Each structure stands twice: as structure tokens, then as C-alpha cells.
Description:
It is an enzyme of class 5 (isomerase). It is a single chain. By secondary structure, this protein is of the alpha/beta class. It has a single domain (6-205), classed as TIM Barrel. The protein has nine helices and ten strands. The strands form two sheets. The protein has an eight-stranded parallel beta barrel with strand order 1-2-3-4-5-6-7-8, surrounded by four helices. Strands 9-10 form a two-stranded antiparallel sheet. Helix 1 (15-24) runs parallel beside helix 9 (194-205). It is globular. 41% of the residues are buried. Residues 10-11, 30, 32, 34, 37, 39, 62, 64, 84, 86, 107, 130, 132, 136-139, 159-162, 180-184 line the site of the ligand O=C(O)c1ccccc1N[C@@H]1O[C@H](COP(=O)(O)O)[C@@H](O)[C@H]1O.
Amino acid sequence: MVADTYVKICGLRTPEAVAAAVDAGADAVGFVFAPGGPRTVSATLARSLGEAVPAGVETVGVFRNQPIGEVIETARAAAVTTVQLHGDEPLADIRMLEGAGFRTLRAFSADAYSALPADEKAGWETGRILLDAVEPGAGVTFDASAIQAQPPRGFWLLAGGLTPANVGTLIATLRPNGVDVSSGVESSRGVKDIGLIRDFVHAAKM
Ligand SMILES: O=C(O)c1ccccc1N[C@@H]1O[C@H](COP(=O)(O)O)[C@@H](O)[C@H]1O
């Protein structure tokens, strides 16, 4: 296993789930602001959930193809430390977010990332990236052979169909800096399971 794996638990909607993630040792908790999903929360709810999160743990707002002005306004209202862009957003949006004082994560489908020209990859790899399945938050794994052959050069997170049962093996095989999970710590879509959250963080940090 890889020591000090960064762990983000995403799609949190209750104080109990946030406390479980923090108590288990997660490095980040995620709140989904991309509209229309089972995990979508308001900035007001995220702000109140985030008040119980200690300073060393990142609070991440997740957005997908929303106008950058709206992203910044929502992230400020929610008082998150970090913005995750999970759509087709340009590098300029990452730069704007950095200028506004946020840490960032930019998500790609693993296939799309592997197909990027080297100079584009180099631009994204100056920041933190996240490699996921094509449909985010669906609990689906993907063929990671291209990533295994040519992993990103900077800090990167693995997501997509991770569970307490498979995360240890995937960390050992692909050696990401961290992992991000939503579906794999739920009892049903959008409903977090406290025991699975604990099991996932422990398995990822073993
Ligand atoms: O979880 C969502 O509903 C979501 C919606 C829009 C963009 C991203 C979303 N979640 C991200 O998906 C992965 C987790 O995937 P999985 O459910 O574990 O397979 C993670 O990066 C979330 O931030």
C-alpha cells in the first residue's frame, strides 16, 4: 500500500456522514453543487455542514459545466476551501479560481485525459487533477491500463467505482496520490453509509 494516501469522501449531505468521514481520517469532504442529482446540496446546507470540519480537512465544492461566476459565488457562499470542476471547463477557469483564493481539482474521464496532447497534459498537471469514469458519481469502474502505462506527472486522484473492497488493490496498482469516492460508500444512491465510509478510509490509508 502507499502511505499517506489522500482520501476524499464526496456527496455528503448530513452532519453524521461528515463526522464519520472526518473521524475516520479523510483529508477532504465533498459537497455536490452540480444541479439535478441525488447528492446536490444548497450552498447554505454545505456551509453549515462545513462548520464542523476541522481546518486541516479540505471542504470541496463539486461543479459541472456551470458558469465560472456562478461557481465562485456559490463556493464563496458555501465557504468551501476547494473547487472541483467536473466538466469541460478550460484551464482559464482554474486560474480564475486560484486567483479568487480557492484550491482546485479538475476532473477528466481517464480516456479523455490519456488522449490529450502532451503539452495540454503538462498545463493541467501544474495543478491537481482527478481521473474518473465517463459518468461521474455513477459507481462505475473503468479500464485503467492507459493510466497505468502513463500516469499523470503531478498530484492526481483516482475516482470511479471505488469501494472499500477494491480501493487498496487499485492504490497499489495505479499509485495515485489519492482517491475520491461517492457511490461506494452509500447504502442506496445518494444515501451515505457510516460503516462504509469508515471502511473505505481505513482501507485506503492502510
Ligand atoms: O456524485 C455526483 O453526483 C457528481 C455529480 C456531478 C459531478 C461529479 C459528481 N461526483 C464525483 O464522481 C466521483 C465519484 O464517483 P463514484 O460514485 O464513486 O463512482 C467523485 O469524483 C465525485 O466528486
